[in-house]
Amino acid sequence: MQTISRTALWLIALFSLLSGLVSAQTVPEDFAPMLSATHRSPGNVARDSHRHPAHTLAFFGVRPDSTVVEILPGSGGYYMEILAPWLQQKGQYIAANRDESLPQYLPDHQKFLQRLKAEPALYGKVLVTEFRADRHPIAPPGSADFVISFRNLHNWMDQGELQESLRAFHQALKPGGVLGIVDHRGRTDQTQAEQMANGYVREDLAIQLIEQAGFLLDGRSEVNANPLDTKDHPEGVWTLPPTYRLKDKDRDKYRAIGESDRFTLRFVKP
Question: What's the maximum distance between 2 C-alpha atoms anywhere in the chain?
């Protein structure tokens, strides 16, 4: 009886622990109230069918009590509109935005700061830090549950700042913290150098470089895949919506393709 009793108690405790873990996991539906919220800008809402924010955030594992650092949200604030209000009660949203080293981006940074100030009910608890490579701490060391970045890798690779940026992310994350990456998926029949100017990144190379920085690949999702993207457009990824760099030329053709094919990767800091 004593053995059975101890076993039963152990099983009950284990079941309770597993139930708690399951209940703590987010699902896409958890973000539904934010996606339908009236504060979101119409331009951002129009991109939901291409960017799949609820499924992307659920794949990363973001929870209401998480500390999340978004890299370069900018004044558009696509994910900030969703995450900042969602996290403000139990979690923390940190916007690692521009420093003063690249003057061409300062007008947008000022617009970003003005937006935060103008809507305190939504963004009054947002923390703003500076980001450029590893020049600044994006959060206190070992404090972040998540660092997330959307379509930035190609820029850092082109500027020779990828490893430095990854170092800053690694320092900010807790052990077990998650680095979530979404970027334009490059062609496998071309080298990275051959497609760098088009904005695409080879997924295999991205994984290799991020793992070299001390992260472990923990998951891959095709939620942001787009098989219609042939990746041979005259102006690279910027040919496609929402940029339409060719303006009205072949606009219907590129609208039918949609936004770029993207990989979605989840890495863990050991």
Answer: 80
Domain that holds residue 62: 27-268
Token digits of residue 146? 């998540």
Is residue 209 within 8 Å of 183, Cβ to Cβ? no
Give a yes or no: residue 129 inside a domain.
yes
Sequence-distant contacts of 38-45: CB under 8 A, at least 24 apart: 39/81, 39/85, 39/119, 39/122, 40/81, 40/82, 41/76, 41/77, 41/81, 43/76, 43/242, 44/76, 44/77, 44/78, 44/81
Residue 79 lies in a domain: yes
For residue range 247-257, what is the model confidence (pLDDT) as tens digits? 999 999 999 99
User: Is 21 a residue whose pLDDT tops 80?
Assistant: no
Task: Indicate the number of domains in the chain.
Answer: 1
pLDDT tens readout for residues 173-198: 999 999 999 999 999 999 999 999 99
- pTM here is 0.90
- Nearest CA among 77, 60, 90, 169 for reference residue 123: 77
- Measured from the Cβ of residue 196, the count of other Cβ atoms closer than 10 Å reads 17
The DSSP 8-state label assigned to residue 187 in this structure reads: P
Could you give the CA distance from residue 37 to residue 255 in angstroms, rounded to a whole number? 26
